[in-house]
Amino acid sequence: MPPPPAPIPNGSNAPAPATIPLTNSLMTKLKPAKIFKNAVEPTPPPTPGSSTRSNPGPRHITSISFDDRGDQVLTASEDETFRLYSCKSGKQVVFAALKLTRNVLTYGVDLPRFTHKNTTVVHASTKEDDTIRYHSLHDNKYLQYFKGHKQRVISLEMSPVDDGFMSGSMDKTVRLWDLRVPTCRGLLNLPSAPVVAYDNSGLVFAVGVNRYSRILLYDQANYDKAPFLTITLEDPTLALVSYPPRPIYMTSLAFSSNGKHLLVGCSGDAHYILDAFEGHLLAKLEGFVGLERRRLEAPPSIDPAKGNSGEEVSWTPDSKYVVGGSLDGRIAIWDVHDLPTRTGAVDLKIPPLRIQPLASLEGHPGPARCVKFNPRLTMMVTAGAELAFWLPDQSADNEDIAKELLRKKP
């Protein structure tokens, strides 16, 4: 039986808890320990005379963020509110929900990201304008406004090492910011709406350009120069399904903890893992229903779109596993600790290793739109119309112990 997560002492200089090694056995025993049924306000009833044919169904949580220590998780949802939860007690921080609602309702909220302080976040706006806001959770005040984007921000990431952050927008630009300065310190103009990610060192960042199937890798210190690596994301196995193959729509990027691999989240029925040094396509993660549609019974669109996707796939902290959501509510666990290696010139005709889930976990009610693993504790959080905290089921270990005792001769 794995030991429980070590408690984190109070104080900013407290040592980090010991990491519990993740194994196949532990990952397959994850079960919902708590489900928050009221994590999102219900959709208001239609007004008299309004059409009900376009009813999108229940509101969803659109984004989740852990603080650096894994003590808290913050959600943003389509009811235009923040909600803050304690990962240790498994309870909502009630005072935060009450205080945060007033300001956030004015501007809307999406993509909340904890800074390196667990009392402040940056977030995108969904109403009024496309300003990024720097928000204090402690006293419910805005500390800074970051203006510049002309359309909605669809990708937002904090630097892992300092107060810098990066945003990608529907206005086809990437902007680099610093929390201390309201004006952007860097601007990249692109041919299509981008998604962005930092590597763990903060020295490299990636920009995914949809409709061109390109991923651009930049040196953080020389972002104004050309990317040092341009990766073409092309999956030859898609031609076996339809011809011409349906384009891939990227919704997220994430580097592995060692910086060697790049996880590409997509709105369709597959995600991809690339070699981050040379750009080889290594693996295709299958065995789930993509979140391009909002409901399982909805027909697929002709052209690929972001749909309900964005945060439904992520690495575990050790990068040995990938966890992902599905439109049918299952949570896929992929074992990726033994990926193939390739060197030399990139050959786009070589098919990737196709990986099926190690396990497809049941227990999340409805589509799993957001899936993330706690950076410090052995827990996973999934979100959609409801929020679920997952922990390893220790009763299974007790059953194994009992069976072993019964096998022993008296």
Give a quick summary of the entry:
This protein has helices spanning 24-28, 94-107, 394-407; strands at residues 30-36, 61-66, 72-77, 82-86, 91-92, 110-114, 120-124, 132-136, 141-146, 153-158, 164-169, 173-178, 181-189, 194-198, 204-209, 214-219, 229-232, 250-255, 261-266, 271-275, 281-285, 313-315, 321-324, 331-335, 353-355, 359-361, 370-373, 380-383, 387-392. The chain is mainly beta and 410 residues long.
Explain what you see:
There is one protein chain. The chain is 8% helix and 36% strand. With 410 residues, it is mostly beta strands. The strands form 7 sheets. A 5-stranded mixed β-sheet has the order 18-19-20-21-25, with no helix packed on it. Strands 1-29-28-27 form a 4-stranded antiparallel β-sheet. Residues 1-18 have low confidence and may be disordered.
Number of strands: 29
Helix content: under 10%
Tally of helical segments: 3
Shape: globular
Mean pLDDT: 86
Q: Could you tell me the strand content as a percent range?
A: 35-45%
Q: What's the N-to-C terminus distance?
A: 24 Å
**Helix-strand makeup class:** mainly beta
Q: How large, in whole angstroms, is the Cα Rg?
A: 21 Å
Key words describing this protein structure:
mainly beta; 3 helices
